[in-house]
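User: Okay, second chain of the day. Same drill as before: sequence in, structure tokens out.
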Amino acid sequence: QVHLVESGGGLVQPGGSLRLSCVVSGTMFSINSMGWYRQAPGKQRELVASITSGGATNYADSVKGRCTIFRDNANNTVYLQITTLKPEDTAVYYCNFRNWYRGTMYNYWGQGTQVTVSS
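Assistant: Same drill. Structure tokens below.
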């Protein structure tokens, strides 16, 4: 079993920045990925950024240039740094962890952390 615990959300003014953290515990296979998704009211959950165990990253177009995802493998933690925040970044942000083992993917989610961008 895998557990994810997020932290770092809150109220931020437009133009500000924040860093989200997610600690992953449990069984982690060598091939995995960590990522952040977000879901705004009335919208579908969407990928923000992801990073594989090999270090490859992927970003949504809406956050490219404003967002950095990185991981601390020694502490099984993934971070999401977002700058120049906009009101449209307001959403619940979910940490995601995927394990691959013998051709099967195991998908896990955190409980979510609210990010509100408002003056």
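The CA atoms of residues 94 and 112 lie 4 Å apart.

User: Thanks, on to the next one.
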